[in-house]
Amino acid sequence: MRVCLGSSGLEWIAPLLSFMIPALIRWVPEAQFPYPIGFDTPSYLAEAKAYSKNLDFFPLLFRILGWMYAVGLDSVVAMKFLPTLFYGFLGISVYYFARSYLGLDRWRSLLTVGVLAFSVVSLRVSWDLNKQVFATVPLFLALSQLKRLHSPYRSGLFVVLGLLVASSHQLVFALMSGILLYLIVSEAYRFCKGRGVDIRLISVALATLGGGLLVFLGGWYGWSLLEVHRAAALSNAVGAAFEYEAWITAFQKYTRIFVICYGLLLPFIVLGFFRQQALTGWMMVAAAGSLSSFVSPWFGFYFFDRWTYLLIYPSTFYVAAALKRLKLANPLSLRKSLVLLGVLLVINVQSLSFLGLCSWPEWLPRAPSFFPELMAVSSIPIQDIEATAQLLGRLNQKSQDLVLIVHINYLGWASYYSEHRMVAWIPWSYPGTLSEALDAAKNLKVEDIYLLWYGDQDAFRLGFSKFLENGPMKLYKYEGSGQNV
Length: 485
Fold this sequence. Notes:
The protein is of the alpha/beta class. It has two domains: 7-144 and 233-354, no CATH class; 382-478. 62% of the residues lie in helices and 6% in strands. The chain is built from 22 helices and five strands.
């Protein structure tokens, strides 16, 4: 039996499907949770509120959320739907890139979108790295123009899209910069070999890099080289002595994440690999970032896991190419469609768990600090979100001369629902304990100090007394007694 869906039938429906397939997949976990999902997502709520009161423009997504909040749109509602829309637009941008730059037919382009949309790595990024998804869309759209730069319109569009990337996300801008440098070096190599050089490509790439750097350095960091250095890629461990234990720890951490992300995809990536300059540059830059902490954990990049996630985008094209070479992607018969679906389910079995459709496979490693097993969760449980909203609504009626202490997991939600200053304790940073957070709050010289927490013993020991209670959560007021340990 053969499905009658030729290229003419796909002409109009394929772009629509390239949006709908990712959007529907992304909505599955969102529908299982009454609030926006994702660990970092509550921070977007807080930033929307903050950006509604300031004139900051970067990152661009926060500026947009600030405008939406300012006109009365509830950020909880906005962030419930926007990540799904971003995922759909990501699908369209990948489809357009496959058609315009790689020259794939409609079916293979749509297949690539499906592979990406169902990938556990892509879903992990969309779980709470919304700025990254937001910036990846214009990156794909920009790279789609590479073979059409002879047109002034396309050249201008490339530069504008590149500036949007620079305005949206540091990591994706670094990736784009690496890709453009790779393209420039490739053209220089062709020149050295006496071959033709694409002067327009070099000019547009340099203009985009220059404009992007102006936006990045001036807009993001106000021309402060110190701030750039602090936020740059080199870790705080630079210059530390070699420690074998650090290397082993980095190796174990990276191996777990890599196996989760690419263990089942790797054979297909190798089988389907092909050379295209933009994809090759993407792979090289992302691989350098993701391997840095493994090769040298005392001199590596921040967020190596996020560099590892960026490998999924070029890898998706290789997986789709492998499926074609295995003759699973064509011709489109019902039998081969079922086989193709089965293969996609097997190589993305983690996605089924991540989407909440089954339990996490026991034979797969776990890395909960980087990779949750379920998408339909936030930084805190549902009952804590609701209790936090109620308690802080009551606290907002109090004097403004107070500070609220919260755990980092509660900071996004608390910042959105509270009108007061906050001090958060962060177990892996400073202040790293409730005691240290209390010291920091005292240094602010405010009239009252409150604590949002659920542990009576922790609070009473430091001199807090219970002020309000709602479900599992409690508000404590500092009375000045107890022992600060």
